[in-house]
């Protein structure tokens, strides 16, 4: 497990997974576009979504870009946005099973 995954696991209620089979499973949806995430986060609360977003923002301020995409309901809508942010990204993080209400609450 990477330092980033370990840090997130210590600070989130949800799970942080880095196993190759999990990452491969979430590397695509019904489309043809494929991006293998560095890790998969299963947030359990709005707070987990907030903490993950805040942490990736802090990484970006230090020059390490880690785009986030949400997978769950309407996940196919997230990938076109992810594609736009991948240029120059160091890695990708995926919020699996994320409900729209968690994301909307975290963005308020």
Largest sheet: 4 strands, mixed
Total tally of structural domains? 1
CATH topology: Uridine Diphospho-n-acetylenolpyruvylglucosamine Reductase, domain 2
Number of helices: 5
- The proportion of strand residues reads 15-25%
Low-confidence stretches: 74-88
Q: How far is it from the N-terminal to the C-terminal residue, by CA?
A: 31 Å
Write down the overall mean pLDDT: 76
Q: For the largest beta sheet, what order do the strands appear in spatially? A: 1-2-4-3
Subunit arrangement of the protein: single chain
Note down, in words, how this protein is organized.
The protein is an alpha/beta fold and 108 residues long. The protein has a single domain (3-27, 35-106), classed as Uridine Diphospho-n-acetylenolpyruvylglucosamine Reductase, domain 2, CATH 3.30.43. The protein has helices at residues 3-11, 20-25, 46-61, 78-85, 100-106; strands at residues 15-17, 39-42, 68-72, 93-98. It has a four-stranded mixed beta sheet. The protein is globular, with a radius of gyration of 13 Å. The N and C termini lie far apart (31 Å). Residues 74-88 have low confidence and may be disordered.
Observed structural traits:
108 residues; Uridine Diphospho-n-acetylenolpyruvylglucosamine Reductase, domain 2; four-stranded mixed sheet; 5 helices; 43% helix
Put the structure in a nutshell.
Helix content is 43%, strand content 17%. By secondary structure, it is of the alpha/beta class.
Question: Could you outline the blueprint of secondary structure elements for this entry?
Answer:
Elements: H1 3-11, E1 15-17, H2 20-25, E2 39-42, H3 46-61, E3 68-72, H4 78-85, E4 93-98, H5 100-106
Parallel strand pairs: 2-4, 3-4
Antiparallel strand pairs: 1-2
């Amino acid at each position: 497990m990477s330092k980033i995954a370990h840090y997130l696991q210590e600070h989130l209620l949800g799970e942080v997974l880095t196993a190759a089979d999990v990452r491969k499973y979430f590397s695509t949806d019904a489309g043809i576009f494929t991006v293998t995430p560095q890790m998969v986060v299963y947030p359990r609360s709005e707070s987990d979504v907030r903490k993950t977003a805040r942490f990736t923002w802090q990484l970006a301020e230090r020059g390490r870009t880690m785009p986030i995409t949400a997978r769950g309901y309407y996940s196919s809508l997230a990938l076109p946005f992810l594609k736009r942010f991948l240029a120059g990204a160091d890695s990708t993080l995926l919020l699996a099973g994320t409900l729209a209400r968690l994301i909307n609450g975290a963005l308020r």
